[in-house]
Amino acid sequence: MVCTFVLFWLCWWRFTGVFGESLSVTEGDSVLLQNNVATIHEDDDILWNFGAENSLIAQINSPNQFFPDERFRDRLKLDRQTGSLIITNITTQHTGRYKLEINGKKQSTKTFSVSVFAHLPIPKITRDFSQNSSSSYCSLLCSVVNVGHVTLSWYKGNSLLSSISVSDLSISLSLPLEVEYQDKNSYSCVINNPIRNQTTHLNITQLCQTHLDQGPPLVYIVLLSAAGSLLIVAAVLMYCICKKLTKTVQTQEEDITDSALCKPTTGKAKSKSNAVYENVPKK
Ligand SMILES: *[C@@H]1O[C@H](CO)[C@@H](O)[C@H](O)[C@H]1NC(C)=O
Ligand SMILES: *[C@@H]1O[C@H](CO)[C@@H](O)[C@H](O)[C@H]1NC(C)=O
Ligand SMILES: *[C@@H]1O[C@H](CO)[C@@H](O)[C@H](O)[C@H]1NC(C)=O
Ligand SMILES: *[C@@H]1O[C@H](CO)[C@@H](O)[C@H](O)[C@H]1NC(C)=O
Description:
The chain is an alpha+beta fold. The chain has helices at about 1-15, 205-210, 215-250, 265-280, and strands spanning about 20-25, 30-35, 45-50, 55-60, 65, 75-80, 85, 95-105, 105-115, 125, 135-145, 150-155, 160-165, 170-180, 185-190, 195-200.
């Protein structure tokens, strides 16, 4: 009897009382805070307040509209007919309590509790090379960066293996998993907040294959040989250019290019070069 009463009271409190209407949205969404408490008359004064400090963010004072709060710049639209407020491109900073106040022949109020959740990143699964490698197990990490108010979990099929939650804003999370190389189960890493989730499926063959262990050295070898070839090509090119320049100096007396890297080396060319410099008037 007492229990039923408490339950009833809690429900009533939850849906009509202190918290008003609750909305959970993702940043970037457009949110409609709908007036369903009173019909609006021509000369009603409609006020929308936000936050614990109850600061004015929108007002219709017939026939004018005001949006005095910088935090909502260009994001608010007031519906003159209904008194409803539309917040466009909402951000996490706009999480909080919104209060509608209609002052006319009679006064009505309604509150909304709006929770704005950040977009969920896609979890990234990587091989964890910092763990001791063993012949039959493969160590993995599922990671996300810059998250808040989320849970990160490993699932084997539909059953939860492990999870980690964070309530702070903007931190990085990672969750380890060890699998056998031969494991044929399907594993997935899931990030979720109260309204959304994102899943990445593990591909054991792709991440744990042993030939991938020798991956990094192979990449280095390829890179090194590529760099080596480039150097050789550059050297050959340089040599050719030098040779050509030297020839030019020898044959065309008027057209001498003075290159710091590649001076003509024959005595004849040098003397001609000097001669040209001597003709330049000194200041
Ligand atoms: C939405 O808001 C964000 C952050 O203020 C801004 O970077 C972005 O350009 C806005 N998008 C639109 C479509 O207005
Ligand atoms: C790796 O193994 C060594 C000894 O076998 C141990 O001291 C060390 O803590 C292990 N490291 C990890 C990351 O498990
Ligand atoms: C992820 O969200 C979908 C609906 O969007 C739901 O069907 C599914 O059960 C959720 N998965 C998890 C692991 O929460
Ligand atoms: C896993 O990766 C391998 C190798 O990259 C690929 O051949 C295979 O199709 C992938 N399996 C799944 C289920 O995506």
